[in-house]
Design a protein that fits this description.
Distance between the termini: 40 Å
Radius of gyration: 25 Å
Oligomer: single chain
Strand content: 5-15%
Shape: globular
């Protein structure tokens, strides 16, 4: 990612004081003139505007550079705060305060208000001055201005998905002094209008493609993809007539949120997703194999492992995946010398992957306070018993069969590409002797091995760990991967959802693109798996939510999906279950229990972040979110 990875020695010439995220220091005009008189410094300034992009590939806090200004604000990943994951560590981590519901307006973790406003400020400064750099040809300057315009609008959209409507500081006179006491948040409708207008303006002057040496720079497709996600969120219930926010006004007398739902917003979401599709520049990542299941596994893995594959619309290339994959490796020393055993899927995510033969999702709900799964008898799934001599699909032909729990038998390609379950042979083992991974109290990666470095649920998430790499500490081949900010698989599911929800419902069109995602994983069509889905808007919605959970797992989208659908109190609230890893035998360790995992809390107020106390101190009249 050549452009974004430029080393930034460049000093920010507009530090933010007073109302910290808004007011530039105009005493450095001479420096600004110098900066925008040269190509290199102008390009570096734009690179700095890119530097505020989300860092969702950093799933825990300790990866941030303490010497980099603002690094503490760059905790953007939502995986550890979502019902799709249960990370091993429950102390000295930012996410735990959010999972247990104890956060409040003074909690600093994941507080991104000032971070994104700094990016917005830097983008505006660049837009105001880029045309002063006459050594850069006019067409190139036009494209650079469009990049900054998009980034500014995108940072606003990220603020909205976290906080709701915000104060919009657009193309404002740079000499204008903004006083904190004078401002409040603008209405959500005003925010939406500004952002979509800016997206559209940026797209006009951006190329459809870029040269391979500049992958990672913005294109029309990236703008359209961001617009698709943003308008999808704005059409969903949280931002489209949510009853919690009815009657809430800003200081100007405007309703902050829509007072009633507008179904036409689904039309706009559908059109935005179709803009990406109609570019015909992207395609689902597909690999070849005579075995249908293996083809699905390889294709799904390749989204991350094939550098700059055609599914990626905007991505970050991670050249050294140690920081991620060491936390996906089992610990204990009996299999590997180095592994933290920490990045784990929730049992709910594991339960959600469909069955390969018929494409049905095996679990329809839970009883007994969430402990016991309600199994769809038509799925063929079993949560009890074992299958002897099971060959894991990604094991080599010479690999030894295992005794597999029946819950891990017959699942779809994405399950086997993503989930490392107890009893598997170690997938990244290049030793002469195969090693089996077991997570119970006397297993090879046992419960309670070291402080925190052991799975609490009985699984690890291994999607970003290439099976071809030898990740033993002696070899240190940790691999690399692409982290998608936007990819075509998400756009297809965005479009499928909007087609179902828009006033002129187009079920057939939505199913067409939904099925492309399923077929890539080797599954049958959703209407073949569920004939009753035809004409059933509610069942379509429920099943699509499950599809998004597995297809986009650990891509930092589930957290906002749950909240914008307004299902957080149901899906991210209450006891969390895992396998009974305190058992002393492999067989007993597959029992479900809540004795190890701590509960997760999601109250209505948690669907949006509170305006932080720092901002409340600066802006005395700003309107706080519901419940805070």
């Amino acid at each position: 990612m050549k452009f974004i990875n430029i080393i930034l020695f460049f000093t920010l010439f507009f530090p933010l004081f007073s109302c910290n995220f808004l007011e530039p220091d105009l005493e450095k005009q001479l420096d600004i003139e110098e900066v925008f008189s040269r190509r290199r410094s102008t390009e570096r300034y734009l690179a700095n505007v890119y530097a505020y992009l989300p860092t969702d590939f950093y799933a825990v806090a300790d990866h941030f550079d303490p010497n980099r200004a603002g690094s503490a604000e760059r905790l953007t990943s939502t995986v550890s705060r979502s019902d799709e994951a249960y990370f091993s560590w429950i102390a000295y981590v930012n996410y735990q305060t959010f999972n247990d519901g104890s956060w409040n307006p003074t909690t600093s973790g994941y507080h991104l208000w000032s971070h994104y406003y700094k990016g917005i400020n830097q983008a505006t400064v660049f837009m105001d001055h880029v045309n002063e750099c006459t050594v850069i040809p006019p067409d190139e300057r036009k494209a650079m201005l469009a990049e900054a315009r998009f980034l500014r609008a995108y940072y606003y959209s990220l603020l909205i998905q976290q906080y709701g409507p915000v104060f919009v500081w657009g193309d404002t006179d740079p000499d204008l002094t903004i006083k904190g006491d004078d401002i409040d948040r603008h209405s959500l409708d005003y925010n939406i209008e500004f952002i979509t207008e800016q997206f559209d303006l940026a797209a006009v002057d951006l190329p459809v493609t870029v040269e391979s040496s500049w992958y990672g720079k913005l294109t029309k497709g990236a703008v359209y993809a961001a617009k698709s996600r943003f308008l999808l969120y704005m059409a969903r219930p949280l931002f489209n007539g949510c009853p919690w926010y009815v009657g809430m006004k800003n200081k100007y007398g405007d309703f902050l949120f829509p007072q009633t739902a507008d179904p036409n917003k689904w039309d706009e979401a559908a059109k935005a997703a179709k803009q990406v599709i109609d570019l015909n520049e992207y395609e689902l990542c597909q690999k070849s194999d005579n075995d249908n299941l293996l083809r699905g596994i390889k294709s799904y893995q390749a989204i991350f492992f094939d550098k700059w594959n055609k599914e990626l619309i905007l991505a970050k290339w991670i050249p050294d995946a140690y920081f991620w994959n060491v936390r996906c490796n089992p610990s204990g020393g009996k299999v590997l010398k180095e592994g933290y055993c920490g990045f784990c899927p929730s049992l709910k995510l594991v339960d959600t992957y469909p069955m390969q033969n018929n494409g049905r999702f095996p679990i329809t709900g839970y009883t007994n306070d969430g402990k016991d799964p309600i199994i769809d008898p038509a799925s063929g799934y079993s949560d009890v018993g074992f299958t002897e001599n099971f060959k894991h699909p990604i094991d080599p032909p010479s690999g030894k069969p295992i005794k597999a729990h029946n819950s891990c038998v017959g699942r779809d390609a994405r399950f086997y590409a993503s989930i490392l379950f107890s009893g598997m042979n170690w997938i990244n083992d290049w030793w002469s002797t195969e090693q089996q991974v077991t997570f119970h109290a006397t297993g090879t990666s046992p419960y309670g091995t070291t402080q925190g470095d052991f799975t609490k649920v009985g699984y690890l998430f291994r999607r970003m760990s290439d099976p071809a790499n030898n990740t033993d500490a002696g070899a240190g081949n940790w691999g690399s991967f692409s982290w998608p900010l936007f990819r075509l698989g998400e756009i297809y599911l965005n479009y499928a959802e909007a087609c179902n929800e828009k006033p002129n419902r187009d079920e057939a069109e939505g199913l067409k693109y939904w099925n492309m995602v399923r077929e890539r994983s080797g599954l049958n069509k959703i209407e073949a798996a569920y004939p009753e889905i035809v004409g059933n808007k509610e069942l379509y919605r429920t099943l699509l939510q499950k599809e998004r959970m597995v297809e986009l797992a650990f891509e930092s989208l589930r957290y906002y999906d749950v909240r914008t659908w307004m299902i957080g109190e149901k899906e991210s609230n209450g006891k969390r279950y895992g396998r009974n890893l305190q058992a002393t035998t492999y067989e007993d360790s597959w029992e479900r229990t809540d004795a190890i995992c701590t509960p997760i809390v999601c109250l209505p107020k948690h669907h949006l972040f509170p305006i932080h106390q720092e901002q409340l101190n600066e802006m005395k009249n700003i309107t706080q979110n519901y419940g805070w």
